Amino acid sequence: MSQYTITVIKSEEEKPKPASDDLSFGRYFTDHMFIQDYSEDKGWHNPRIVPYQPMMLDPASMVFHYGQTVFEGLKAYRTEDGHIQLFRPNKNMERLNRSNDRLCIPSIDEEFGIDAIKHLVHVDHEWVPDAPGTSLYIRPFIISTEAYLGVRPSTTYQFIVILSPVGAYYDAGIDPVKIAVEDEYVRAVRGGTGEAKTAGNYASSLKAQELVAEKGYAQVLWLDGVEKKYIEEVGSMNVFFKVNGEVITPALNGSILQGVTRDSVIQLLKHWDIPVTERRISMEEIYQYHQNGELEEAFGAGTAAVISPIGELAWKGEQMEINQGETGEISRRLYDTITGIQYGVEKDPFHWVVRVK
Amino acid sequence: MSQYTITVIKSEEEKPKPASDDLSFGRYFTDHMFIQDYSEDKGWHNPRIVPYQPMMLDPASMVFHYGQTVFEGLKAYRTEDGHIQLFRPNKNMERLNRSNDRLCIPSIDEEFGIDAIKHLVHVDHEWVPDAPGTSLYIRPFIISTEAYLGVRPSTTYQFIVILSPVGAYYDAGIDPVKIAVEDEYVRAVRGGTGEAKTAGNYASSLKAQELVAEKGYAQVLWLDGVEKKYIEEVGSMNVFFKVNGEVITPALNGSILQGVTRDSVIQLLKHWDIPVTERRISMEEIYQYHQNGELEEAFGAGTAAVISPIGELAWKGEQMEINQGETGEISRRLYDTITGIQYGVEKDPFHWVVRVK
Ligand SMILES: Cc1ncc(COP(=O)(O)O)c(C=O)c1O
Ligand SMILES: Cc1ncc(COP(=O)(O)O)c(C=O)c1O
Q: Where N6-(pyridoxal phosphate)lysine occurs, residue numbers (chains A, B) (predicted)?
């Protein structure tokens, strides 16, 4: 049996599926999960699809102590004619391996990772919801499992995929959010792990998020960890600004996550001949554009919300309203086009979509 | 039954205990563990000592994805007359709560935490080894357990304590190590989580550690994340330098862990009337002291090794040998005094030691 043969053990019972208007995000999980083990002598081995079940882990497992873990997030979409498709899963597997490298975790076979995801989604295909805006969120992750308290990379790992049906992000079309610029806490710094999708980045973001939520802001806008001047990301999204007809976004600098949605936005803008530039952007600069009436739109981009328009940006006691707090034209066009491609109602000029069986 | 009553379920079997010359670090675990649960409605509840056993966790548990977790490390020492004692456990519980605060984890009752540790060590007292230099390592940790993929603090947690008999850190007296100054990767930055004892800091340190190990260095010396100029820590230890008779150590700045050993070293030096200063120290400055023949000693300080003399420091292609690669006088005096207090053979002028039953 090859290391690429996936054993399937079907669940004896099917869990009840939640109603499509009760899905929210990441709360319900499907009947099955994918697991594969790694050891130094066998490499990645024993890939299997099994009933969704608790994991049994020694309390000394390294993941609990030293956080050596990486993850990904993508979605499966149901088309109008009932097919199921993934959006650019190769980008997620590439990023997973870049994260693995930073965290000293053995790399996975990217093609096989995509196959495993497809196979699992196929087994649980009845869980892909069909109400507008709903999807099946896919969470691949790798954890270090060796029971050892020395600080060094683990010698054993598990690669796991779980699935969660998720609701429409917006109840009624896309809706601008209020964002606060964070100038005390830092998410990531050059030389750190910001470019990797690893647990510690999210743990360190909770405090700032909690503090701005108390003041009524949806997310924080992170500045760079060195000078606290340059814009990095918005919550768990990459960020874009439209200024005088040009779209600008922070250049990838080692501390910003390389979003799949970010890349898709840039490709679409180029395709549409809308000028788009990746460069260093200071918060002061954005403030000046706003003062001069040149800041036309701002939006976050990520798998969860696709495009999240920013209606207000708070910085150093100033409240900057953007586009009268309304969704901008480019934001809407990007949202409609990307979701259109994902759900199979728009042409897919870049061959981003991958069909499941 | 009060929330402070610890239920004890004894293990039916006793595991064989490893030979005292085969202990190494963090590899063997005792017969029992302590667990306590947290939920929003009950707070911390159901403290119990149970047989050491795997944990059953939903694969969506937040700790695997967003790394919301903190830990501590301290030791129990066996005295010559057979008693068991802890070293400043209150400092570890204080730090655990400071880490909790940064990671948005509900705080624990520090007094009760110490009681829980004492109770568990008492149950497994036969596991406290008595060969010279050996001890029982104590690992309290808290993990976020809610099965939910949204990025926000968990609503449920477990506080766990496990125990591991550990060998003498040095086979034959203390032994100087070679350290490489890290100028690419960063452990922590102002505004980040460096001051907290949380998993992500250790995950992010693995890569640099792996790279210097290939070149024959034991650990890295971390520089600050902002300017990469100022000295922070050495591996998992705080760092001290003796220059012209004065001992200097980096001041606590938010990105350095507040070591218990560091604090003990500072108190002892003051007690001995040896000048000691906490301040910002650049690597350039240390290099100049070395060039001028003023750098007399350098050492790391932490629970695992107590004092770890630095025999060589590599920076920008320069190899600085310190004290002819030998253990310095202050390093040895600190090591002998602190371990003497820990094992009950030296007077304990600061009442650092706490006896277990
Ligand atoms: C920190 C961070 N930035 C950006 C993104 C957006 O990346 P993607 O478009 O691949 O979802 C995410 C989430 O996925 C994220 O966690
Ligand atoms: C990053 C780091 N710095 C310093 C220390 C030293 O702290 P302590 O003396 O409390 O063991 C430790 C380890 O415990 C550590 O992990």
A: 197
Q: Which helix (H) or strand (E) holds B65?
A: helix B62-66
CB B315 within 8 A of CB B264: no
State whether residue B237 is helix, strand or coil: strand
Query: Is the minimum CB–CB distance between B345 and chain A shorter than 8 Å?
Result: no
Residue of B nearest to A188 (CA): B192
Q: Which CATH number fits domain A177-335: 3.30.70.100, 3.40.50.150, 3.40.50.720, 3.20.10.10?
A: 3.20.10.10
| A145 reaches B (C-beta below 8 A) | no
- Threshold 0.95, pTM exceeds: yes
- The CATH T-level fold of domain B7-166 is D-amino Acid Aminotransferase; Chain A, domain 1 (3.30.470)
User: SS3 helix, strand, coil % of chain A, rounded to 5?
Assistant: 25, 30, 40
- Contact between A64 and B103 using a beta-carbon 8 Å cutoff: no
- Atom index in ligand 1 nearest the CA of residue A91 equals 10
- Provide, as residue numbers in chain A, all residues whose Cβ is less than 8 Å from the Cβ of B34: none
Distance set, CA A347 to CA A85, A280, A339, B148, B291 (Å): 14, 33, 11, 34, 68
Residue A274 in contact with partner chain B when CB distance is under 8 A: no
Every domain of chain B with CATH number 3.20.10.10 lies at 177-335
**Which of B15, B66, B209 has the most A C-beta neighbours within 10 Å, making it the best mutation to test the interface with A?**
B66
Domain with CATH 3.30.470.10 in chain A: 7-166
Partners of residue B68 in chain A, C-beta under 8 Å = 202-203, 206
**For ligand 2, atom 13, which residue shows the shortest CA distance?**
B236
B65-118 tens-digit pLDDT: 999 999 999 999 999 999 999 999 999 999 999 999 999 999 999 999 999 999
Dist. CA A250 → ligand 1 center (Å): 14
**Nearby residues of B130 by Cβ (< 8 Å), 6 or more positions away:** B20, B78, B82
Three-state DSSP state, B336: helix
State in Å: Cα B267 to ligand 2 middle: 17
How near does any CA of chain B get to the CA of A329, in Å? Answer: 29
